[in-house]
Amino acid sequence: MPRGVGVDRHPGVRRRLRSVAVDQRLSLLTLGVSDLDRARRFYESLGWSGKSPDGDIWLFQLNGMILGLWDRAKLAEDTVVEDTGGWGGITLCQWVSSNEEVDAILTNAEAAGGSIGRPGFQRYWGYTGLFFDPDGNPWEVIHHPGWTLDEHGATRMR
User: Fold this and answer.
1) Domain ranges (residues) in the chain
2) 74-87 burial string, b = 16+ CB within 10 Å, else e?
3) How far apart are CA 82 and CA 84, in angstroms?
4) How far apart are CA 35 and CA 37, in angstroms?
5) 24-84 has which CATH code?
6) pTM (2 decimals)?
7) Cα 79 to Cα 28: distance, rounded to the nearest angstrom
8) How many Å apart are CA 93 and CA 117, to the nearest integer?
9) CB-hemisphere CA count at 13 Å for 19?
10) Three-state secondary structure call for residue 11
11) Which of 7, 15, 50, 85, by CA, is between 20 and 30 Å from 44?
12) How do 28-33 and 66-71 pair as beta strands?
């Protein structure tokens, strides 16, 4: 252990820690999958293209971030968590420019091997639907009239 790390030399004395701001940015989101080839084919069937640096993980360059697909057991071990097989408390979401695009994406996801969790419908704030990829990861597709895409393809709130 590096010198001074984890050692409290002055118990009971409050020290002021130097504040470091964390950028409001997500760089990589990795989904744990049970079958890497099946997951890769699913996302490629949606029209996405990616690459694997080593055959162990598949990476898709998104607008401003990267989506990774990796073996679920390896991801759990690397993340130091116990995989209980249940939902992980995360829903992925993609904003699109119209209600029709929401429905088209749901249709494409189902044709590619996903399943529809919620067909498209109107909410007070916009139009939404939800599909699951083959590993059960939920993807909500929404058209929110208060959001836009900037010139780089990033979603922006107005």
Assistant:
1) 24-84, 91-158
2) ebbeeeeeeeeeee
3) 6
4) 6
5) 3.10.180.10
6) 0.76
7) 14
8) 13
9) 1
10) coil
11) 85
12) parallel
> Would you state the structure tokens that stand for residue 8, as one six-digit string?
């409290």
Do the beta carbons of residue 143 and residue 127 sit within 8 Å? yes
Greatest alpha-carbon span in the chain: 63
pLDDT in tens, the chain (158 residues): 444 445 555 566 666 667 677 677 788 999 999 999 999 999 999 999 999 999 999 999 998 889 999 999 999 998 888 888 887 878 899 999 899 999 999 999 999 999 999 999 999 999 999 999 999 999 999 999 998 888 888 888 88
Q: Which residue has the tokens 């909500």?
A: 140
Measured between alpha carbons, how far is residue 102 from residues 16, 55, 96 in Å? 49, 32, 7
What tokens does 3 get?
A: 């010198």
Q: How far apart are CA 74 and CA 79, in angstroms?
A: 8
For domain 91-158, give the fold: 2,3-Dihydroxybiphenyl 1,2-Dioxygenase; domain 1 (3.10.180)
